[in-house]
Design a protein that fits this description.
By secondary structure, the chain is α/β, with parallel strands linked by helices. It has 38 helices and 15 strands. An eight-stranded mixed beta sheet has the order 2-3-1-4-7-9-8-10, sandwiched between helices. It has a five-stranded parallel beta sheet with strand order 12-13-14-11-15, with helices on both faces. Strands 5-6 form a two-stranded antiparallel sheet. Strand 8 and strand 9 form a beta hairpin.
């Protein structure tokens, strides 16, 4: 293939390929003649292959046997790496000098200076290459995202996970390029596995701030709480995430970000923190639950945008820090939390030039504000340069904007359509004529936001202010449904949204969810514009309609084979669904949304929140259709039973049963009988429970309803267990397993497998019991139903103890018990009694040969580690 090769070095975003011969130094020492021949042939292959794929070899990077190549296309870079490896494998190398080449491909915006590339992308690519093994190709997540859809024939990308790379502040998500022609079996990369975190990968580079990061790290090392304060747009959130990312190696139990901006209710603060840290907030999310979870852990908790819920955040942070010695909290807020142990750091703006003594372009580029403007301008206009002709204009922009990062990014985004000199002139005129507001910096911020907003087209302005109705982000489908109409055609939303992203007013998707978002400062500004335009009522109604229909559409999918996908969808839009619930003026509408979300709340552990919405809506919707009220009563009863509020559960299900008997629908009656029987069983009223089960089973069998029959059979099996009729219980449980397999209802199938395991356990068939539990754990983990995982782990611990494997039993039992305590399953007066009961069972199973006391459980594994341990042992 004769492809002309340009000699002009590409600028802007490029793809880098770095190679290196593994172990070349010892080979040179042992057989210099053979290595001389081998390396010459190696260099020829690299040269031919890189040219074939439209790349350029810049120079060696690292030791003498390495190559540094650049490509304008990530697809070409990946294809070149693959062809290189295939050629190296085919080559007949000297026996004494077997060449194995490690490679890395990464994409980013590198700085071209004097014929060489410099900057973070180059450093990151080199670190990735150093993590690879001979004959292995590692690919960064950035390149994967851009090239995954156009891989060469036979090639694939294998996810290796997140790794800490030496010298880099943030971790890298690594992928291995595979092909049938060479092995994909390598040891783990030569790097540390990344600490657990939910920090998202940042899509733009972080300019400067080295002093601020170091100062924040020092303050956090000396104080349990560091609050970053400052004006809107000062970069508090971005600085906090960069500091947190740099500290990942220091926190073995993770760095966790909780975004508080979408929350408008103080009650949801505890819920959101619990959902992030516990991975489920089932039962009643309490301060005690969080304390018990965090006390033994070394964790960094990042609380972003605290100012509007500071009355809830401050006392909770005080409780957590007082009780958890290894916990550190990094908060961002426009005001301090004002609690003991807090250090406050006012985030400074970026350094700006002195217009009276303007330095040379080279020295000007060393200022953080200028570098930020330059990088963001290059992203909008790749050929943009700062030179002697425009340096004063750029300096003037950064100076007039007080070095506020958000404002600089907004101004830089306009270089695509407005000359930089005109941007400077407009800003100068605008800020000079603006009336006095609260402070100079607030005046600058407001004026720049107004200026950037006024530069938008009418359609862009309409879309920006309408997007402020979303909480926690949105998908393109949601934007088209909610924001289109009255001045915006639906088909135009995607183009307008892309323009807002280009102008740095909207943030693009940072992961596979394809969700957009507004920075909180911009969202608040846009919300004011929405109110000024008198569009807020209309948008709230459209938002409510969309998410009401979304919840209604999702509801049947939560009982089908694709339930995991829909659970994730609902979780991603939970903040929008909460907004819809709050904005539902009609009590009946609120009740309908809550009913649609019932199973989602149950499976994902939002029990207190779900029960609160349901019971609150029931109180206000006395005139709602009887079908809707009965379903809400049924769900509220299920939540009450799950929280061991047995009295309330019985009462709610009795009310539901009365309504449904009057409705005359036998299926609904049977469902209420079943759930009431369960509540009665929990209340130890066994005879009444059996009566209700018998009636429900009769109805289901008469109607030929398999699902109902399976549910009642499972519940009756539980009664058989209580009566020590273990074989009968097994038969009933296996009947329900078969039905749920047929229905592809994973959540109920996992529960049925758990029941089968219990019946097998009591028949002393422990290997079979553990097999059923492991199968259930896999399903529960897929659904992120961690409470059920913990319950299954408890029974694996019983099985291990029965086999006299007390060490394994103690490990798994402790992890499960710790998680159950933290998740809020037990009320405050029950944990010790339940713990002692389980401990007694565990001791009895060891036949007295091994004494296990409570201290065995003092040091426990994290629940996720326990899950991996259980599956590893089972495999």
């Amino acid at each position: 293939m004769d492809t002309p090769i340009t000699t002009v070095l590409p600028k802007g975003i490029i793809s880098l390929l770095m190679t290196d011969i593994e172990g070349s130094s010892p080979l040179w020492d042992a057989c210099p003649a053979a290595m001389q021949s081998a390396v010459c042939r190696h260099d020829e292959i690299v040269s031919e292959c890189v040219a074939l794929h439209r790349g350029l070899i810049i120079k060696a990077k690292g030791e003498g046997d390495s190559h540094f190549c650049v490509f304008q296309s990530p697809i070409d870079a990946v294809a070149a790496a693959l062809d290189l490896q295939l050629e190296f494998i085919r080559e007949d190398w000297p026996a004494e000098a077997p060449i194995k080449v490690r490679m890395a491909v990464h994409t980013g915006e590198a700085e071209l200076r004097e014929g060489d590339y410099r900057g973070p992308p180059v450093n990151r690519c080199a670190r990735i290459r150093n993590a690879a093994h001979g004959a292995q190709i590692l690919v960064s997540v950035t390149t994967r995202d851009l090239a995954a859809g156009s891989l060469p024939s036979g090639a694939a990308l294998k996810d290796l996970g997140h790794y800490e790379l030496t010298g880099l502040r943030s971790p890298e998500h690594l992928f291995q390029l595979t092909h049938p022609a060479f092995t994909d079996s390598f040891p783990p990369p030569r790097a540390q596995i990344n600490s657990p975190t939910n920090l998202l990968r940042q899509l733009t580079s972080f300019i400067g701030r080295e002093r601020e990061i170091e100062h924040a790290r020092e303050l956090l090392a000396k104080n349990p709480l560091l609050t970053l304060t400052g004006a809107g747009g000062a970069g508090k959130t971005r600085l906090a995430t960069e500091v947190a990312a740099s500290l990942l190696p220091d926190y073995a139990d993770g760095v966790w970000l909780v975004e508080l901006a979408p929350l408008s209710s103080h009650e949801l603060v505890l819920q959101s923190i619990a959902s992030t840290l516990l991975r489920d907030s089932s039962g009643q999310a309490t301060e005690n639950a969080l304390v018990e979870h965090l006390r033994p852990k070394r964790t960094l908790l990042v609380l972003d945008n605290c100012e509007h819920v500071i009355d809830s955040v401050a006392p909770l942070a005080h409780v957590l820090l007082r009780s958890c010695p290894q916990l550190r909290i990094l908060a961002t807020s426009r005001e301090a939390l004002s609690i003991p142990g807090e250090s406050v750091y006012i985030v400074p703006t970026l350094a700006v030039p002195d217009m009276r003594r303007l330095p040379s372009v080279k020295r000007l580029m060393q200022l953080e504000s200028i570098r930020l403007f330059f990088e963001r301008a290059r992203a909008a206009l790749p050929e943009f340069e700062i030179n002697a002709d425009n340096a004063a204009a750029v300096a003037g922009i950064c100076m007039r904007l007080d070095g506020i990062p958000l404002l600089i990014e907004l101004a830089a985004a306009w270089v695509r359509s407005i000359p930089v000199e005109e941007i400077a002139e407009r800003l100068n005129r605008l800020l000079s004529n603006r009336g006095v507001l609260a402070t100079h910096r607030h005046r600058t911020f407001q004026a720049t936001m107004d200026w950037s907003y006024n530069l938008l087209t009418d359609e862009e302005q309409v879309l920006l202010r309408r997007l402020s109705v979303f909480s926690g982000g949105w998908t393109l489908d949601a934007a088209e449904a909610v924001c289109a109409g009255s001045g915006i055609d639906e088909y135009a939303v995607i183009e307008l949204l892309a323009r807002l992203v280009d102008k740095s007013l909207a943030a693009p998707p940072a992961d596979k969810s394809r969700r957009y978002r507004l920075l909180e400062t911009i969202r608040q500004y846009a919300a004011e514009k929405l109110r000024d335009a008198d569009e807020d009522d209309m948008l709230i109604l459209k938002h409510l309609k969309f998410f009401s229909e979304f919840a209604s559409t999702a509801k049947p999918h939560l009982e089908q084979g694709d339930q995991r996908k829909w659970l994730s969808k609902l979780e991603a839009d939970h903040d929008n669904l909460r907004s819809a619930l709050r904005n539902a003026v009609q009590p009946e509408d609120r009740l309908a949304i809550a009913v649609s979300l019932g199973r989602f709340w149950y499976v994902r552990g939002h029990w207190s929140e779900g029960r609160g919405w349901l019971e609150g809506a029931l109180q206000r919707a006395a005139d709602a259709p009887v079908e809707l009220r009965s379903e809400a009563l049924n769900l509220a009863g299920i939540f009450a039973a799950a929280q061991y509020d047995n009295g309330s559960a019985v009462q709610l299900h009795e009310q539901c049963l009365e309504l449904r008997r009057n409705m005359g629908d036998p299926i609904l009656v049977a469902g209420s009988l079943t759930n009431l029987g369960l509540a009665l069983r929990h209340a130890r009223d066994i005879e009444r429970a059996r009566e209700h089960y018998d009636e429900a089973l009769h109805i289901y069998r008469e109607l030929g309803n398999d699902r109902g029959t399976a549910t009642v059979a499972s519940n009756m099996g539980s009664l058989s267990l209580l009566s020590h009729e273990f074989a009968a219980a097994e038969r009933l449980f296996r009947e329900s397993v078969g039905v749920y397999e047929k229905l592809e209802d994973d959540w109920y199938l996992a529960g049925a497998l758990h029941n089968v395991a219990e019946s097998l356990f009591w028949q002393e068939r422990c290997p079979e019991a553990e097999e059923a539990l492991i199968r259930g754990i896999r399903i529960e983990a897929r659904l992120e139903d961690w409470k059920s995982v913990a319950s299954s782990l408890t029974w694996i611990a019983y099985a291990a103890a029965a086999a006299d494997n007390i060490g394994r039993a103690a490990t798994l039992f402790a992890a499960a018990d710790q998680h159950l305590r933290a998740s809020g399953e037990k009320s405050d007066d029950e944990p010790d009694a339940i713990f002692e009961e389980r401990l007694s069972q565990l001791r009895s199973l060891s036949n007295g040969d091994c004494f296990v006391d409570q201290r065995t459980f003092g040091t426990t594994l994290d629940i996720h580690e326990a899950v991996r341990f259980a599956i590893q042992v089972a495999d």
